[in-house]
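#lab-general

N.A. 3:47 PM
ok so I finally got the sequence cleaned up, no stray characters, all 135 residues accounted for. can someone with queue access submit it? mine expired

B.Y. 3:52 PM
send it over

N.A. 3:53 PM
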Amino acid sequence: MGDEQDLRAAAPVPQATKPRQEEGGFQSLLQVVTVWLLVVEPVAYDNLPPLSMVWVPFLLGWALGLRYLSIIRSDERIRSRALTWVMMPLAIVMAWTVLRWLRWYGIFTCARTGWNTRQNGAEVALDTPPAPVAA
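B.Y. 4:20 PM
back already:
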């Protein structure tokens, strides 16, 4: 028992995990604020969200989508990459509507995993002993 505690003291938790945890908390807070501005404010207080909440995500999405134009692959034409970049607004709308609700549904229902594949233990089992190998 004492050796285990010595190992924990000798190997501290990497500092790289702390920014990730803070980032996750910030993203959760940002989603709560976004839901408040887009749902609660218009319904409860008759206060429409600012117009920047519409065009800023599209500009950011197009800026992030520039990687489709900057990374050149030999098996992909420039026309295909340009079409992917032009379709970024549709991807943003899908992420803000359908995919966001699917993520929330997955978060709220992750404890009910009745569709697990390993309900009866390991998938591979040996029912009969292996036959002896002839020498």
